[in-house]
Amino acid sequence: MNFKTFIKSLFLLVSLVLVSCASRKDIAYLQNVDSLGNNKETLNYEPKLQFDDLLSIIVSADQPELTIPFNMPQIQGNYQINENQDGIKTYLIDAYGFIEFPVVGKIKLAGLSRSEAVTKLQTAVKEYITNPTINLRILNYKVTVLGEVLKPGSFKINSERITLLEAISQAGDLTIYGKRDNILVIRESDGKMTYNRVDITQANFINSPFYYLSQNDVVLVEPNKTKINSSVIGPNVTTIISALSLLGTILIILTR
């Protein structure tokens, strides 16, 4: 093999390395969504209260003076939810699933949905107040997205309802190197950690228990083979290959 043939072979090899073979099935989300048809029913989701959840619970009634013992310290006028939750009595669900509520005492809320917890509190407070209204919010509702996304981190959720796709969007979307068919959702359920795989390239994941995220869920996006292989060779491989390609082109021109 003469020098000119060698250079041409090297140039061809470099060109093949630079060609990407990614296909739509590796990249696109919800690829078979048309096969699901139009779902006329709205998915109903409520988060279940967990250990270490921080709650805001405000009791209201027709006679506001009767609610004072339940709203300690008393909340006067309007208030605004902020990072410090100023002026709002908060309740931390302990390791056994209970909170210590004024007048009522210990009451177990862990494992209940938000509406179930409201009903339980209303029943307890009805012994002291007629027709009480309970306003309950989870103050430390957050999810964490890590791995092959543009902006990994923990995100505070104000609405108490977020989908996996919305969480990924808050993290800036997946990079081109993120595995879309094998996303790991780490979730604590009934005091136990569960590890669950989700394929967001298939639309039927909308009907899975992981379409909506629970508070404190951790979403981990793994790198695909391209990213793993490039990390083995080194971060400067693309620059080196490009330089060799340019050098090969110059040598071919000069040896004609």
From TrEMBL:
<keyword id="KW-0732">Signal</keyword>
<dbReference type="InterPro" id="IPR003715">
    <property type="entry name" value="Poly_export_N"/>
</dbReference>
<feature type="domain" description="Soluble ligand binding">
    <location>
        <begin position="142"/>
        <end position="195"/>
    </location>
</feature>
<feature type="transmembrane region" description="Helical">
    <location>
        <begin position="233"/>
        <end position="254"/>
    </location>
</feature>
<feature type="domain" description="Polysaccharide export protein N-terminal">
    <location>
        <begin position="44"/>
        <end position="138"/>
    </location>
</feature>
<dbReference type="Pfam" id="PF10531">
    <property type="entry name" value="SLBB"/>
</dbReference>
<keyword id="KW-0812">Transmembrane</keyword>
<dbReference type="InterPro" id="IPR049712">
    <property type="entry name" value="Poly_export"/>
</dbReference>
<protein>
    <submittedName>
        <fullName>Polysaccharide biosynthesis/export family protein</fullName>
    </submittedName>
</protein>
<feature type="signal peptide">
    <location>
        <begin position="1"/>
        <end position="24"/>
    </location>
</feature>
<dbReference type="InterPro" id="IPR019554">
    <property type="entry name" value="Soluble_ligand-bd"/>
</dbReference>
<dbReference type="Pfam" id="PF02563">
    <property type="entry name" value="Poly_export"/>
</dbReference>
<keyword id="KW-1133">Transmembrane helix</keyword>
<keyword id="KW-0472">Membrane</keyword>
